[in-house]
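Technical appendix A lists one of the benchmark inputs used to test multi-chain prediction within the project. The record comprises two sequence entries:
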Amino acid sequence: MTQPTRRSFIAKTSLLALGATTTLAAEPSKPMLTHHVFFWLKNQASKEDQAKLIEGVKTLEKIETIRHLHIGVPASTEKRPVVDNSYAVSELIFFDDVAGQNTYQDHPIHKKFVADYSHLWEKVIVYDSLDIS
Amino acid sequence: MTQPTRRSFIAKTSLLALGATTTLAAEPSKPMLTHHVFFWLKNQASKEDQAKLIEGVKTLEKIETIRHLHIGVPASTEKRPVVDNSYAVSELIFFDDVAGQNTYQDHPIHKKFVADYSHLWEKVIVYDSLDIS
């Protein structure tokens, strides 16, 4: 029984290796565009409105050109004059390229997000960066 | 000869599997803190000063608490009132946590970067976000 068992183990391990290799090979090319959005709420102190907006940002992740979506809130790093932690919610999205960001802007899910949640925010700042590193 | 050859192949494949698994397991936990810095230059139109600052930002990647470092320049996305593309260089760093960012701030490499390159910039804005996605 020893030999077949070992073979079975080896076969499974080999499949694992094949799977791992395939996954690595299938990964998309490195995204080159970061789209970082900072939202300030009308009711800046409202944890309820902050939670609602976070719920809204989460709906965006179904947009197919998004490679990674990070939702953030201000971190408790040291208070320094250059640090702006006055926003309520941040949304950091990686796209492959400018075209991916354009598709996102015009996407029905994004338009619905703006229609359903823009009453919550007072100010938005967007920084689009091309990755050169 | 068939059997040993196959065994040898399987042994290599198994090692590959082991290697892949080990790599995956050894990956750090998902970084939770994004530190996004935007720089405006004193000579905002100077491509030379922009290149110098990029060279400076690149020196930071040796700081051991940095999980990912993206260096960016303004992307050619659509001009909209909410988009600020007036900065010259952006630096997006992922840390595991606030402690990782604190280590970075106090690190000799970071202090040297500020000493050597801060004469180039006029304004800096920093956004530190805790990832909740």
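The helical segments of chain A are 2-26, 47-59, 98-106, 108-117. Residues 2-26 of chain A form the longest helix (25 residues). Comparable benchmark entries are summarised in Table A2.
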